[in-house]
Amino acid sequence: MKPKVILYNQISEDLVQQMEKYCDVVKLSTDEERFSAEIPTAKGIIGSGLNVDIKLLNQAPELQIVTNISAGYDNLDLVELERRGIFATNTPDVLNETTADTVFGLMISASRRMPELDAYVKAGKWQSKITEEHFGMDIHHKTLGIIGMGRIGMAVAERAHFGFKMNVLYHNRSRKPEAEAYLKAEYAAFDDLLMQSDFVCLMAPLTPDTVNLIGKREFSLMKETGIFVNGARGTMVVESDLIDALRNGDIMAAGLDVYQNEPVEAANPLLKMDNVVTMPHIGSATRETRYKMGIIAVQNLIQGLNGEVPVNQIHER
């Protein structure tokens, strides 16, 4: 008898068929009543975003593997999964370049005010030569500060250094000699990075230590012409402090792909601000990359169900 696997996100049909060679695949969303009926006999769960905590695990006594179709895994209780001997996997690396494209797109859009000016033209307001009130800010030869120089941070730094001739500062838990040699990146103390950078890009992982990492004090240290970009997690920023910093002119603009609550509430003041570029958490969301992520996730799943240690097993830090 094939092991039952719950698939709670949509993936390419050919990948579903690959899974079905080894598994009994049950497709459903996590908010369906049927989910609670299927989870007790499931051997595997595959998707992205489901909160796998003690409460859910207590309902899933036969679970052998939880497979995230994402690089992030803050939705998983890794301590409890390891205690129960359940594999946890993710899909790292394959999305680095695509996510870096998104982050750099936010930098460009915010600094050159592209969404704002796009709306200006489409509203029929472009009736004469534009004036200084519509000008943006250069990116090239400016200073980019990256908080979290992991693989995606490195990919952002490559675009900055080679593509836009930017000076790159970074702050990380440990020094990155390869970034310093390859990209001429300079390690900076946290506050120094905030004060010296024209663009501050948050790319660090979400941990208990990085929750609310950026708030009123940090925004006050940034340049008034500074642009803040968050490509990490929304809960790493005190969102009310970001709103105040933008309203008060403490910083010039922001580019956001993540929020404190997702989907972001329609009444969120950030959605009404011309100097904020907002995206719906689409860092890795291209057809090509999501398909590759699906391939890796399915491979992880099959390996775990076969009793093998998955290539992308996550270990509790």
Automatic annotation (TrEMBL):
Q: Name one GO cellular component term.
A: cytosol
Leader sequence range is none
Q: Name one GO molecular function term.
A: NAD binding
Gene3D superfamilies found in the cross-reference section: NAD(P)-binding Rossmann-like Domain (3.40.50.720)
- Show the InterPro entries listed in the entry: D-isomer_2-hydroxyacid_DH (IPR050223), D-isomer_2_OHA_DH_cat_dom (IPR006139), D-isomer_DH_CS1 (IPR029752), D-isomer_DH_NAD-bd (IPR006140), NAD(P)-bd_dom_sf (IPR036291)
Q: Which family does it belong to?
A: Belongs to the D-isomer specific 2-hydroxyacid dehydrogenase family.
Name of the protein in question? Gluconate 2-dehydrogenase
